[in-house]
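Researcher: Batch entry, complex prediction.
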Amino acid sequence: MSEYDPNIIAFLCNWCAYAGADLAGTSRLKYPSNVKSIRIMCSGRVDPVFILEALREGADGILVAGCHPGDCHYQSGNYKTSRKIRLLRRLLRELNMDPERVRFEHISASEGQKFADVVTDFVNELKVMGPNPLKGECQ
Amino acid sequence: MPVTERKLKFAFYWGASCGGCEIAVLDIDEKILDVAAAADILFWPVAVDTKYSDVEAMEDGFIDVCFFNGAIRTSEQEELAHLLRRKSGCLVAFGSCAAMGGIPGLANLANRDKIFETAYLDNPSTSNPGRTLPSKESRVKEGTLTLPEFHDRVRALHQVTDVDYFLPGCPPPTNLILEAVNAVIKGELPPKGSVIAPEKSVCEECRFEKSEKMLTEIRRIYEVEKVEDRCLLEQGIICLGPATRGGCSARCLDAYMPCTGCGGPTPNSMDQGGKMISALASILGLEGEEALPDEEIERLLDGIVDPVGTFYKYGLAAALINRRLEG
Ligand code: FES
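Model: Structure tokens for the complex:
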């Protein structure tokens, strides 16, 4: 099987994860270029509908990253997101879409290395998983 | 001649449906007489004996308005969808099945083979030693018998042909049916593609007070001894009100039953299930969430025993992910 290049959409919260990704860049850390980052103010802004739409449009993986527990700038956005993603993953399992395609991570502004590691790991995992079965489907 | 000066030419067809939509039309009671006075019913298989060939013989666009209820499962339904589209000036996806696949759309959790297996082979009440399955053609001594093809998947009407308006509901509420009929007669139609229902959620029409906006446990309705006079969600009963378009006056809630979502997604949302997951996750396990261990969150979520059936009872066929994927 010819190797495919996973396409990852990352929703990164402005205050932690996005700054972490920035740090990974300014520290010149190496990580795969498969990630398309979307900056949001808080991980709590991520509506499961965004993730479903990304999957529908053929994204192979979706990374949602926010502040560590207790650090969310809006108090509880990351707690809510954690529950949303858990529930969404249950739904995906029933639809036979691998729930591991959707990941939620806590990445702080100082964790450039963690961001690079998460992305590297996710890309490797998605390579094993294969492309999103909905890719190329258009109706 | 404009419709206002003559009788309205009306058609009503059913695809994969239960027949409830037909009953809903009769539910407008004596006002059906007004409709009969204002309209010529050209085609309505359940009530009027017109043949498909009669419809084929009509000029294109001859029918003023066609209410099409039911989803598209078979080749016959698909053909009729195309035929009625051609013959009708205005095609309305009538009811949840036509508008978004409806309950038949839940069959997208399986495929044709699995459905045939369950219905004709592995069913405890079925004896089928010859393992006969419906097939498009069967030869008998008198000749060849044909059946429409059973597609692998259920689709909503707009996934098959161009639809002018959507009138969701299982069945659509009488007042909205009347509104639609009147709009057609008066020629006061909303922009093409509109959903003929208010731009608000079921919650906004619900009489129950919402206060705590917090959910500590999910309970199924049979586990609740007495439903109290307050928001059902807050009592732990999953109610799709926040993710569902209103227009029904929240009549299920009036009967102390939770909304199951037949109105389809709220106006600003692309996906009813996704929206409901968002609403539910925001209030479930809110208490002490900082200290809530993962296992406890998972235990709370275990209360949702059938996520697809709960969040897409009527809308799976038209959802962003519209079926159980193969493999
Ligand atoms: S601000 Fe970062 S998760 Fe809320």
